[in-house]
Amino acid sequence: MDTQGLQTFIALAEYRNFTRTADSLFVAQSTVTNRIAELEREVGKPLFERNKRKVVLTREGELFLPYAKRILELSKMGIRDIGAMKKYETVYRIGSTNTIYECHLFPIIKEYMLAHPEHAVKITIGHSNSLIQEIQDNLLDVAYSYLPFYHNAYHCEVFATDNLVLVTRYDNDIYQDGIKQEDLVHADYLYCNFALQEVGSFIKELFPPHYQFGFEIDNSTKLIPYLLFTNGISFVPESIAAPYIEQKQLRCITLLDFEAPKINCYRITRKIPT
Description:
By secondary structure, the chain is an alpha/beta fold. It contains nine helices and eleven strands.
């Protein structure tokens, strides 16, 4: 399948206009038309509905779009890896969530790179679901995820286990003697939308359905600065909070009548055929 045709299809799906698509690709509008027509012949279905006012994806086009993006990314990744092999003995493609990378993985990769300068390392930071998809697409050699992935063709093992701790600014004197679960709804809770099955469910179930938080963020490592200048409290992985606790910038709040679950992160690799 022609990569230029796929690139043109993706651009037209974004711009919904033949002229703007042609300008973005630095080609004539007739070239865009011909590429889309050729791709539609190859697919065997119309990918766009066209009229004088708009261009929209058909149902078949909507279905084909994510596959086109993955095919194009696989092609680009293959070309990059072939190029890297000319200079390096091996290219290791590593995918990780941001928190696992910052809390656990960076020092390991750093030591490996210092010991093996002949090897290239390519790191992708993403969400667990997308990393699992990328290792299945052969875009990664190893994925570090908060979600396990059990499949006959892959190894999945616990890479690290973290505690979930409730913290606040060190000089914030609230809940010095600990906190009960029922008190959480009255607290200034800074909500982090953990993309973790058990942990995410645990935190959501501490609050009433459709509870409105005064602050929300989707990355636990980016939550810390907000804890340092507010009187808020929040659950965070202990590995993230530890340096701030040691420097007396944050302190832990004792849980009096409930417990927080452990956080497992997983290493996923492809099995070597025997």
